[in-house]
Design a protein that fits this description.
By secondary structure, this protein is an all-alpha fold. Among the domains are: 55 residues, Arc Repressor Mutant, subunit A (Orthogonal Bundle); 49 residues, no CATH class. 60% of the residues lie in helices and 0% in strands. The chain has 7 helices and no strands. The longest helix has 22 residues. It is elongated.
């Protein structure tokens, strides 16, 4: 845990401890809540938890996180699987998208990931979806050259 998170956790812990101390001194929950700048419900929960579990209410607890769905060895296999190309997995065209990679992860490992998370996974692996090197077979180079010479300058001038 970094220093900022640690100081925040200890500050929250001290606030809960202070609320319980003030209650023991005879303060009303409403007054405690106003003094500490929290809701009455929070003070009520802290006091009830202290009565139920003792001093454990004062200790800060880290937020729960889901365990990583893909294991490290599975994640390291991903670039190898993707190197076979998108068409090897039944996709039309050679372009890998995050949605396609998510489908491959589900098919190979049985783990579902949102495409936004897949993007983060790929970035962590330093692997980026690539534009295919080959050009489309329908591409008409002459028509493209003509468009660049005749149409593009006209469009550019209009701006």
């Amino acid at each position: 845990m970094d220093r900022k998170k640690t100081s925040l956790a200890s500050w929250k812990e001290a606030r809960r401890k202070r609320a319980c101390e003030l209650k023991e001194q005879g303060w009303k929950q409403r007054t405690i809540a106003q003094a500490l700048g929290v809701s009455e419900a929070a003070v009520s929960q802290w006091i009830a938890e202290k009565e139920k579990t003792g001093l454990a209410v004062w200790s800060s607890r880290p937020r729960g996180h889901r365990a990583a769905a893909l294991k490290a060895e599975q994640l390291s296999l991903l670039p190898e699987l993707l190197s076979h190309g998108a068409e090897a997995y039944g996709f039309r065209g050679a372009v890998w998208t995050c949605s396609r990679v998510a489908s491959v992860i589900k098919e190979e490992f049985g783990v579902e990931h949102h495409k936004a998370h897949v993007s983060r996974l790929l970035k962590a692996l330093e692997w980026t979806p690539q534009i295919p090197v080959e050009r489309a077979s329908q591409r008409d180079e002459a028509a493209i050259a003509k468009w660049r010479i005749e149409v593009w300058p006209v469009l550019k001038k209009r701006r």
